[in-house]
Design a protein that fits this description.
alpha/beta, six-stranded parallel sheet, 15 helices, about 10% strand, globular, binds manganese (II) ion
């Protein structure tokens, strides 16, 4: 569904006077407000095709109704989000959950919604119907060459779909590993995986990137063959200049210092992709910023510092994506919250007085360094984020608008109460 322009304007007009007041007050407090607004407008976060239905990753699913039933409807949902927040102008497809039957038509439909195709995602962590070999004991690491070949073929096929859609990257996340000591020869598993990744790498078009995503545990609980950033970095360094590590916030052991990981990967020129979510225990896939917004802010501080040091564009030199899924929230409301949390953390990191921070670091003034960071973190930058959204043509308050215009009710009326999105 498309939201009619006049309903957007009515909402924005209602809030205009109070927003103006808050924005003018904040603007006078920030040195580089106009520059930040520009960066916020440019910063787009891809929505994965599996985040539009409830459930998604584990256990039972409890549909809220009106879920997209087809790839076309998923694109419509992301288009709707983008219309509201002007920050989710990309969609990331998972193959084989979302195989485009007519890639050309799908590409046109996405463009009509102002969307491009972000990184493609392959899947060798599940067996598909009619699949010759099973991935029960891994894919690229497998002791049987037939299984490894099949996994490589699948990834090459995903690249091919991506080419037709205008994507220019593939994310490989492997569930490979072992559940018990002795099950696996670590060295052979690594070497087989490297060999498979090399074959996939060789199938990349010139302007493509491959992201190697790591995860500490689950579904394997003794070892993961790409278990941490060190292992991922080993692979991507061996693969070549088109290979990068992908950091998923939920894929670390508890208390890992993710901001430090981000900083060092950027220093090496090997951070290429980023998956946003939040967690309290493990790979909880909770709404971005719902548990630990300070950590998200500290990560953004390192992202900006590291990207600026390498003269990278915040908007285009990294694959930004949300990777989360829920049973107890409306998926679109959840995504609205996640996007807002990302934009707030990004804006807060942009208002850090970096000169003062560098000076404090040089003088070992630990107290002042903390003051500088927290002065930015405690600033209410929501008017800044809203100003950027309004200038880009979005709505002042996406969540409020979503509810007052009864979007979910309309989706249920069209798609039905029992519609369930494809995926896990
Ligand atoms: Mn991920």
């Amino acid at each position: 569904m498309q939201i009619e322009g006049h309903t957007l304007s009515r909402h924005n007009e209602r809030h205009f006077a109070s927003h103006r007041k808050r924005w003018e007050a904040l603007k006078s407090d920030i040195r580089n407000a106009e520059d930040i607004v520009k960066k916020l407008i440019e910063f787009q976060i891809a929505i994965p095709s599996w985040a539009l239905g409830t459930g998604g990753t584990r256990f039972g699913r409890f549909s809220g109704g009106g879920e997209p039933r087809t790839l076309e409807e998923k694109i419509e949902d992301v288009g709707l989000l983008h219309q509201l927040n002007k920050s989710s102008g990309a969609i990331s497809l998972h193959i084989p959950w979302d195989i485009p039957k007519d890639p050309k038509a799908i590409r046109i439909l996405a463009a009509q919604h102002g969307l491009r195709f972000d990184a493609m995602n392959s899947n060798t962590f599940q067996d598909q119907k009619d699949q010759k070999h099973s991935y029960k004991f891994g894919s690229l690491q497998h002791v049987n060459k037939g299984v490894r070949d099949q996994a490589v073929e699948h990834n090459l096929e995903v690249i091919d779909y991506g080419k037709q859609l205008g994507s220019n990257s593939i994310t490989v996340w492997l569930s490979d590993g072992s559940c018990f000591p002795g099950q696996l020869n670590f060295r052979k598993a690594f070497q087989h995986t490297l060999e498979g990744l090399q074959r996939i790498y060789n199938g990349l078009p010139d302007d493509w990137k491959i992201f190697v995503e790591y995860k500490a545990f689950e579904p394997n609980f003794y070892s993961m063959t790409v278990g941490d950033w060190g292992q991922s970095l080993l692979y991507v360094q061996k693969l070549g200049p088109k290979a990068f590590t992908l950091v998923d916030l939920g894929h670390h052991l508890p208390n890992a210092n993710i901001e430090q990981i981000v900083s060092l990967l950027l220093m090496e020129g090997k951070l290429g992709g980023f998956h946003f979510n939040d967690s309290k225990y493990g790979d909880d896939d909770l709404t971005v910023g719902s548990i630990n917004p300070y950590q998200l802010f500290l990560i953004f501080n390192e992202l900006i510092e590291g990207m600026d040091a390498r003269h990278m564009s915040h908007a285009t030199d990294m694959g930004w994506m949300i990777d989360a899924s829920h049973n107890v929230k409306d998926p679109l409301e959840d995504l609205i919250q996640s996007i807002e949390a990302i934009k707030i953390a990004y804006a807060q990191a942009l208002v850090i007085d970096s000169d003062a921070l560098v000076k404090a670091q040089q003088q070992n003034d630990v107290v002042l360094a903390q003051e500088v960071l927290q002065a930015a973190f405690r600033m209410d930058v929501r008017p800044l984020v809203a100003e950027a959204r309004l200038r880009a043509g979005g709505v002042y308050q996406p969540l409020e608008f979503f509810r007052e215009s009864k979007v979910r009710e309309q989706l249920i009326a069209t798609r039905g109460k029992k519609a369930i999105a494809t995926g896990l």
